[in-house]
Amino acid sequence: MYHALSTNLLLGYHGCDEAVGEKILAGNKFEPSENDYDWLGHGIYFWEANPERALSFAHQQVKWGRVKKPMVVGAALTLGNCIDTLNEQSLQALSQAYDKLVSLSASSGNPVPINEGGTDALLRRRDCAVVMTLHKMIEDINYPPADSLRGLYQEGGALYDGSGFFKKSHIQICIRNPDCIKGVFRLP
Questions:
Q1: Rounded to whole angstroms, how far apart are CA atoms 187 and 48?
Q2: Residue 34 counted as domain residue
Q3: pTM confidence score
Q4: pLDDT in tens, 93-132
Q5: Which residues constitute the domain of residue 88?
Q6: Tally of structural domains, the chain
Q7: At residue 4, does pLDDT exceed 80?
Q8: 3: which DSSP letter?
């Protein structure tokens, strides 16, 4: 389910509030996100090789009252044991986790969470629940935990009529193991 086929070191960009970014650059640790709607489950989120998208996300957070002054912090990352949605084996594992989630939901009488917002769903409660179920399945078989997750997202509607390209396509990285963050840097 894990792969090590990607390059050993890559750059990720974290959109945040300036006060948070300055603390990180001064040596403080990133705070993991633990929302029930996080696209790749709980962890520290980065936009792969896309500082502009990280900044536009930080600007979006201003509208929601979560950021006062947008900033982007760069980071050198390794993926370690990575659940990668661009990898067939990882996709099969996520499919099995979904089946397990449906089974657990049926036996408990709780509904399976849903992603809200259509094709551009920002609240990905189902995806988060599937990922968290996969982490539990991995733990239950005493397999090494995932250090990271990597997901391709086609978001923002078609770039032009009949397009297979999307306005906000991106690769998101979720770091679960902070040791995968090898260093941070200020963007020029």
A1: 14
A2: yes
A3: 0.94
A4: 999 999 999 999 999 999 999 999 776 778 999 999 999 9
A5: 10-186
A6: 1
A7: no
A8: B
